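Researcher: Going back to the complex we discussed earlier. I've cleaned up the inputs and rechecked each line, so this should be the final set. Can you rerun the prediction on the complete assembly and write out the structure?
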Amino acid sequence: MKGAGKIDPLADLSPGSVCQIVSLELSGLLRRRILDMGIVPGTIIRCIRRGPSGDPTAYLVRETLIALRNEDATQILVKRLSNGEENV
Amino acid sequence: MIFSAEKKKSRKDQIGLSETKSQFTIALAGNPNVGKSTIFNALTGLHQHTGNWPGKTVDNAQGDFQYRQKSFIIIDLPGTYSLLAHTVEEQIARDFLCFANPDVTVVVLDATCLERNLNLALQVFEITPKVIVCLNLMDEAQKKDLVIDLPSLERELGVPVIATSARQGEGLKELREKIYQVATGALQTRPRQIVYSSDVEEAVRDLLPHVETIANSPLSPRWIALRLLDGDGSFLDSLSNYLSIDRALSPGWEESKCAH
Amino acid sequence: MRPLTPSGSLGDICGKAESVRNSKLNSLSDQIVADIYGNAELITKQVLSKRKRI
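Model: Rerun complete. Updated structure for the full complex:
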């Protein structure tokens, strides 16, 4: 996986960009809940939009919108597949 | 901790179900917001009553209906995304499927987000073979231009798939008939079993001979092995409770309740 | 993750399960979740398509 694409925290993605989950650096129940939502290594995830105050952010995962707090999204590492601003 | 004989009672007894020969138990499972309640209401009409799950603040709805001279009881399980038991709802749903041994489990799926919903269906398939998939919200899927190849889905899953739009009353006749067929054994199901990646499969193989030493368990040893490898403490509680392995209890046992 | 520690026969099995879990480099429980979703994804790809608006 290394070198195949830049590794970033999910929280750094701007709306419109698409990435693939690399790893979850979370622990405990929160980690399990996020895994149960289908956010697992390899999953494609798209950043949709930020909340009114910039937090939380809505992501599209397996055709479902999921809101994540930026605090948590910082601990999810992703590989960028396409950049939002460039494609829009 | 004392485990009395009462603890040995099956989940069916615990929620006040008295089983008679001609009465079938149907479990209704599904993610939240997939129209499970609409289907429950449509099948049972006014023949239903609600309460709580024993010792929990989670709603329990039961209803019954007659079809072809047979009597059916439906238990509406809490809506969950998974059965890996990280919430009370998931634990209730899982324990019911594991220990109450329903005659048929209907898994209601939202046709507009199939993938997420299949996650739950596949988990149900690992616990019980007598499953029907009810693909609900077909009208919504159509509005979104989604096309689902039903014969292929049925083949892939190994269980009957009934397409419904419960709010419009569509597909419910077929659903009732399929429930009857699977409950009576007229229709056999062979749900698809998940093949895990090699790390997990190897671990299951290592553990299986040990798990097979637990006698009298209604569950597949493979499934028990998977839960142990998952480090699922709540399942150990339930299993031990069911098997009443009280001699196995020690102060350390309490720890398993919050294994993660 | 804290150890599962009942004693007796189930306890022996738990002990064994734990040593199997610890022998793996990656978290088995993560892998189990990922594999179930992987299967769901595979099935969905085979049966789901989007109608094109004309």
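Model: Worth noting: DSSP finds three helices and six strands in chain A.
Researcher: Good, that matches what I expected from the previous run.
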